[in-house]
Amino acid sequence: MKTLTAITVAIGVLTSSLAYGATTSTQFHVDKDARIVDLGLAPQSETRQITLSLAVKNLAAMEAHVASLADPASPNYRKFLTPAQVGSLYGQDAATVAQVVNFLKAQGLTVTKVHANNLLISAQGTNAQLAAVFGSPIHAYQAQGRTYEAPASATAVPANLAGIVKSVHGLDGRPLFRSNVVRQPATGPSAAEAKLVPTRIPTPNATPASLPGEYTVLDLAAKYNVTPLYQAGVTGAGKTIGIATLAGYRQSDAYGYWNALGLPVASNRITDVLVDGGPLPDDGPGSGGAGETTLDVEQSGGVAPGANIRVYLAPNQGNGFLDMFAAAIDENLVDTLSVSWGAAEIYNSAADLEAFHKVFLQAALQGIPVIAASGDAGAFDINRNFPYPDCTTLLSADHPASDTAVLAAGGTTLPHTQVHKYGSITIPTERAWGWDYLRNYITQYYGQTTYYTTYFPVGGGGGVSVDFPRPAYQNALAGVMTSAAAQSLYCKASVVGDPGSGYEDLIDLPPGAPGRNLPDVSLNADPYTGYLVYFEGQWGAGNGGTSFVAPQLNGIFTLIAAGTNSRLGPLHPKLYGAFKTYGYGAKSPFRAITAGTNLYYKSTSTFNPATGLGSLDVTNLARAFGVNL
């Protein structure tokens, strides 16, 4: 296997130790045909922030503690912790933390925060100071129209901190994460096929829309049996939704959406929390990412109109993604937390994945479920960055959805008939979302090239993690799979900036690895049966992606938390336990999805890596969690 030395900045090959020890992966950071230009040494006096992730005292004990919170036989059952209690049990002791702090200060760095979990320390220093401490000069780079800074060669944790500091975040400022939102194509030969202008504008107390692609949270409530909770007076009141995002937005759009639907919401329900200074200037209103944040707030807050909302906004660079979760969980003010941004798990080093995992375990210990979009490239998450046919397809999962402590939100297509320019396509039953059902039509009338450049790979994310082991809640579960054989990513030399010809082997994944399967549950995500979004004062139709499912599930579990008058804690044991109890029977919270694929995995009448446990009957789900209806 070759490393991407032609297109990376001294990253090299990284070894995963979370699951298998022998798994190797490469941390990528460019898209097809992106050329990275080294602009030379970054300004030496420029100040940057970093976050150091410290070792957990006993990771196995921390994992076991999380599991015990959902075990009625355990003395820990539903006894959620504070951040300080997490730090006392699993973080480094005061003397060790002081050792790290004193070392950083001795190197001229300023320590800005020691997190309550005693597992993260934030600091800042100049590029010159950071280079001296971590062993590499900081250069400026340009790619895809954006300038960022990163180490020019390999970095290392100083010997004085070895065994204490597991990873350092923020030295590399590359924008890594993408929002998981998809729209009906509006460019190219199929422009006439797109239906992005709504046929009607929502009005208060109007009946739900009947046209696919123009649904709202009212339709969601009707289709997945949420309405009985509202009829019982459960609106999310007394609970707080958390949204983690990497782009700015306008609060007025969210209020405009809710008001148009006639939803009774408080006029001051949203609180924005800027993390690390907030989103980058080009990720503010008007950017592609702003639409993501807007829909996250609209959907979650529309499903649970009585809840308050805290929106954590961080820059899509360096340590922003980690700090965003840490800030939300350290505050301990939200009852649920969702994110619709992610990246292929094989983009991340083992140390990075472990840093996030510790924070997600902390959230579980505090009773806060974390929900993440599973991705919009079907089973081929990495191919969002390395498209077929210039690169081979590679079965791969999206992170943070692949983390065993995170609920992975998958996608389906609802029954409908698409009326196209040259004919109609009928989807008779809810199926796994994958645009393979469009392949024959698009290739026949627009050609195979259009299909592969616009419609593939698009679908609900799902598959088998090669970085996280199979969790206990998926043991002995029919339909759970191991990683597939013969999974290698080959790309044309030109894709990676190599002047040579032929294909290069960029990554090889292990076969038969018993990894965490995802998604866990799925809801409608196909843009062709998608949703309206009110953005920058205008309505747009034909929006979809698992970006919608994550905040919708956030709102759903906020309703359930309000109905039980408590935090929910780890969701997986309760969900999978309910499935083992009810299956797809009359009182089941789950609806079997037995049709379609996510471009590779088939949806079946068992758990599967296309739609997970299936879609939801939310009223039955609420009852399974103890809500009296």
Automatic annotation (TrEMBL):
Carries keyword Metal-binding?
A: yes
| Active site residues according to the UniProt entry | 292, 296, 547
Kindly state which keywords UniProt assigns to this record, in alphabetical order. Calcium, Hydrolase, Metal-binding, Protease, Serine protease, Signal, Zymogen
- Domain Peptidase S53 per the UniProt entry, residue ranges: 220-628
- Report any Pfam family annotated for this entry: Pro-kuma_activ
Query: Domain of life, per the record?
Result: Bacteria
Q: Where is the signal peptide?
A: 1-21
Against InterPro entries, the record matches this protein to: Peptidase_S8/S53_dom_sf (IPR036852), S53_propep (IPR015366), Sedolisin_dom (IPR030400), Tripeptidyl-peptidase_I (IPR050819)
Q: Which cofactors does it use?
A: Ca(2+)
Which protein, by its recorded name, is this?
S8/S53 family peptidase
- What organism does this protein naturally occur in? Telluria antibiotica
